[in-house]
């Protein structure tokens, strides 16, 4: 059977979509943090919520790194 070469592999599309989502999350991080806080919040509450968001963003970046390293052949 012939292989369809005109389509982009779904793995690449998934990785690209994940990268776009991560960039969007980092770009709107401030708005997302403020949305999770009450209307009137203190700077301590903001800093606490920001420190809770950072590990999740780091985990997403590690997820992308694993895919990239898995794709390379050493």
Could you explain how this protein is built, in words?
This protein has helices spanning 10-27, 29-35, 43-71. The chain is mainly alpha-helical. It has a domain at 12-20 and 41-66. Helix 1 (10-27) runs antiparallel to helix 3 (43-71) and helix 2 crosses helix 3. The longest helix is centred in the last third of the chain and has 29 residues, at 43-71. The protein is elongated. The protein starts with 9 loop residues before the first helix and ends with a helix. The model has no long low-confidence stretch (mean pLDDT 79).
Secondary structure elements and pairings:
Layout lengths: L9 H18 L1 H7 L7 H29 L3
Helix pairs in contact: 1-3, 2-3
Order of helices and strands: HHH
Structural shape:
elongated
Question: What separation lies between the terminal Cα atoms?
Answer: 30 Å
**What is the overall number of helices?**
3
Major β-sheet profile: none
Instruction: Work out the number of β strands.
Output: 0
- The Cα radius of gyration reads 18 Å
Average predicted local confidence, pLDDT: 79
Give the DSSP E fraction (strand runs of 2 or more residues): under 5%
Q: Identify low-pLDDT runs.
A: none
Structural class comes to: mainly alpha
Helix content: over 70%
Subcellular location: Membrane
Protein name: Transmembrane protein 107
Transmembrane segments: 12-29, 53-69
InterPro entries: TMEM107 (IPR029248)
């Amino acid at each position: 059977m012939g292989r369809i070469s005109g389509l982009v592999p779904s793995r690449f599309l998934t990785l690209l979509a994940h990268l776009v989502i991560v960039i969007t999350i980092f770009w709107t991080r401030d708005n997302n943090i403020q949305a999770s806080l009450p209307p009137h919040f203190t700077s301590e509450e903001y800093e606490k919520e920001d420190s809770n968001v950072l590990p999740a963003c780091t985990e997403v970046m590690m997820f992308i790194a694993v895919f990239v390293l898995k794709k390379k052949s050493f």
